């Protein structure tokens, strides 16, 4: 049995929607228990996170970096940096912002560097850009909203939610989040099985 | 009189096309002389670069970072790191890759960090995303190919050239490059005028 | 007359000490007015910052990135991202943490990326490592605490304050901060003089 | 049986010395086979790398980023990006430069981003700064050369070789490399055991 936590901050619901799809993907993996925590709750439940085998961190990209609320959560977990209690856990990351690139990579790198400080093991997205709709690339309009990894992340899922409501987010972005949740849970299960 | 250099590497012509638009933008600024060098030439002409007030660096994003050929140029200029001869020059950066985000930010940060090592002053893109076509944001399809800064860079122009030929690149991407060339040249002119 | 603001967050006084040396360096430049603001005050005084020609941002490196309090300040200034009111201002950055490298570069890059989003122009440290004590390099012990830029930053000053009190910080780290304040103020003055 | 490759570039022998300690650490793990390749050889032996469970990448930090020779190797492996053959391999990274911080983090992030593009799983250093000599922190002189992780990396080992010969490198830096080799090999073994 593997335990995967999703810790997210969401300003207006878009990142929560992504988090929800990451959750569904992780929950689809056999023998996986999923813990789903908003960042402020998560700061109060570090002991619960201590029991998890993986933590996937997600937040919006605000002013080109991790949101202040997610950063405050990371700082609340400095006790785990000292105690090395999160050492060797699996980590992952995802983010959302209005537009395409928009320094979303800074946010994913910020989430990853924090995981490195905690001694974790970071799982890439592992999906080539627009895999299910390669014909999207034949046009300067870019990938279809239905294309998986249309925004082209490599560290984790990136969504572009362009002034749409959370429930109108691009199907491809949400499906990318689902696949990443599934991927991280599968890799976590493998690590757990490999423990002596 | 201000002197602005553009130093670029291009694998298949797309980054060269961007460089050409940066050049045109810079050349449109009064009393600006533009130096246009491919990276391998540039390594042989460091003395010419010594005489410039600004250097704008551009290369494709290959495997998530500055291209090896641009990196080799940067290393060829280590003598200027020792001599501090490029200190206080103005710097800028641009990049291209097939898809939208695709770790292009890593490349721009890589070009910027090298400029910092050389003691330079780095000019942001300075353009909000998709400024000329704000209605693009009302759709999950993302910005129109005609929208300026549709890819949403902040350090410098980012282009997404999606398996199209250089001459078919998105009009918005090319115009973004033009505006950045103009911006860097204007800021360079101001800085030159301010010298005592 | 040029106006340079220093906006800092300090947890235990070390970054405030650095900020104080940046302030002194800037104040040493003729015809320069210095504005000195702690981040929480700064969020309340965005109009004052609007009137400045330069803003230098400083914060501790916490969990490998910009501190949450500095990040909250950056988010409080999102109105200036929309209005483009900080466009073309000069920017700079500095940071402190206990140890040598410790992901301080992530923090400086985070402060720089935010400045890029605001359309600013970023000034490098512009000082080679350990310039005043080159003999420090002949030993694996590393640079003397008196050496300027002993920690070896390139974007801006980096200090390592190793469980010492603020008033016991390494002389070289503080002097690096002073020189950077002076450098940013001089470059700002040049830009201001160059305005038509 | 797990197979761990070390792929390194070394300009003057210091990064090779680090690579050698990473190799020894990995080789100390039971049932681990180690492949040791200089980058130019590695470009010719991608099929051998295909058979490895982990690849640890190391290079000097030149001008604030991954060395051009390591970058050329990464580009030579673009075929594996297309084929996804390196997907789910374990990855790690290490670097060396003369001074302490010196943008070494940019290099480790650059090596990590490339691993992410390849769909890999990245292992942090997992060692607190100067663990074996905490008294080093009581002084502004910084950690002793014998202290493990004295330079304070989080993504992987960072060494500062300050104009000394490879054989004179700080004992703490070399031991950090050893421990990281051992750590990556242990995690790889766990992951291999967990395969169904």
Gist of the model:
The structure is a homotetramer of 196-residue chains. Chain A is α/β, with parallel strands linked by helices and 196 residues long.
Layout of strands and helices, then pairs:
4 copies of one chain form a homotetramer.
Chain A lengths: L1 E7 L5 H14 L4 E7 H6 L1 H5 L3 E9 L2 E2 L1 H9 L1 H6 L6 E8 L6 H14 L3 E3 L34 E3 L10 H24 L2
Parallel strand pairs in A: 1-2, 1-3, 3-5, 5-6, 5-7
Antiparallel strand pairs in A: 3-4
Helix pairs in contact in A: 1-7
Structure commentary:
The first copy, chain A, is of the alpha/beta class and 196 residues long. Chain A has one domain: Rossmann fold, CATH 3.40.50.360. Chain A is built from 7 helices and 7 strands. In chain A, helix 1 (14-27) crosses helix 7. Chain A is globular, with a radius of gyration of 16 Å. Chain A starts with a strand and ends with a helix. The model of chain A has no long low-confidence stretch (mean pLDDT 96). The interface between A and B is large, with 36 and 36 residues.
């Amino acid at each position: 049995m593997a335990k995967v936590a999703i810790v997210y901050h969401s300003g207006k619901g878009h990142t929560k929607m992504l988090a929800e799809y990451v959750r569904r993907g992780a929950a689809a993996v056999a023998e996986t228990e999923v813990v789903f925590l908003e960042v402020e709750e998560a700061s109060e439940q570090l002991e619960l996170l201590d029991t998890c085998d993986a933590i996937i961190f997600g937040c919006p990209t605000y002013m080109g970096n991790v949101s202040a609320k997610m950063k405050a959560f990371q700082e609340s977990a400095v006790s785990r940096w000292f105690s090395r209690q999160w050492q060797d856990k699996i980590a992952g990351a995802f983010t959302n912002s209005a537009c395409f690139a928009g320094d979303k990579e800074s946010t994913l790198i910020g989430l990853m560097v924090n995981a490195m400080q905690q001694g974790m093991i970071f799982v890439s997205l592992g999906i080539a850009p627009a895999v299910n709709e390669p014909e999207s690339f034949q046009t300067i309009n870019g990938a279809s909203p239905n294309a998986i990894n249309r925004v082209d992340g490599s560290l984790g899922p990136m969504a572009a939610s362009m002034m749409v409501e959370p429930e109108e987010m691009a199907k491809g972005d949400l499906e990318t989040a689902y696949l990443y949740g599934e991927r991280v849970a599968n890799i976590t299960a493998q690590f757990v099985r490999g423990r002596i």
